[in-house]
Amino acid sequence: MTPAPRIVLTRQQESNRAWAEQLTAAGRSVLELPLLRFEAIAHDALPNPEDFDWMLFTSPQGVRAFAVAGLEPGEVLIGTLGRGTRAALAEFGWKDLLDVECRDGSELAERFATQVASPARVLLPGPERRMADPRKSLEDKGFEVTELPLYRTLPIPADELPTQRLREGDLPFFCSPSTVRAFCAAWPDRPTCVAIGETTAIVAREAGFETRTAVTPDLNAMVRAAGLDPLPEPETSEPTEMES
């Protein structure tokens, strides 16, 4: 019998950990190979969250960067992308009042507008760059929006990456175009991979990978796209917001 492939997790170390634990608990072989890292963005002055009516988070890292910046939500109402970001909120004792499950920031904006009447002032803490930008959707619906970039995602320098080659049959899981590009910059290998969505899949195919694409942007869908049996329990976190 051919052994199941080893799943190679390429996200940031903080993001890889929860997935590695889930996969290992389900009996999967896992290699953690973080290719990206987070870097905090310094600000001379930060807005007061209590000047806003709502604050929307699109990733667990956005929540943690908000806390690291020394900010507190106070009385502002909070909404998130899904259960993984809600779990990050819970680390600080904060609560998500929207309770929705969305694929990306744009879908979050649409769901928010169905539950909250405009006008309202909305703060968007999060990454420096977004692939799915909720701001325009919110502004088009009459909301006053302020973005607060708190971190950027950067490739780990090639000389800081592990030097080992992948084993035959290893199956990288790519969750953003950035992870594909970082992999290509470090290794000549182009194994079969799994992409979390079509945006990432396009970049992977252009780079020469035989690419399988998850139907939805979550770990279990990537496992299924790999041709493996689904995990026994539903995933507890959505991927960190996919950067360009």
Give a summary of the structure in a few sentences.
The protein is an alpha/beta fold and 244 residues long. The chain is 31% helix and 20% strand. The protein folds into two domains: 7-35 and 156-225, Rossmann fold (3-Layer(aba) Sandwich); 39-153, Rossmann fold (3-Layer(aba) Sandwich).
Could you explain how this protein is built, in words?
The protein has 244 residues and is α/β, with parallel strands linked by helices. It has two domains: 99 residues, 3-Layer(aba) Sandwich (Rossmann fold), CATH 3.40.50; 115 residues, 3-Layer(aba) Sandwich (Rossmann fold), CATH 3.40.50.10090. 31% of the residues lie in helices and 20% in strands. The protein is built from eight helices and ten strands. Strands 2-1-8-9-10 form a five-stranded parallel β-sheet, with helices on both faces. The protein has a five-stranded mixed β-sheet with strand order 3-7-6-4-5. Helix 6 links the parallel strand 8 and strand 9. The longest helix is centred in the first third of the chain and has 13 residues. The chain is elongated.
List keywords for this structure.
244 residues, 5-stranded mixed sheet, Rossmann fold, 2 domains, 5-stranded parallel sheet, alpha/beta, 20% strand
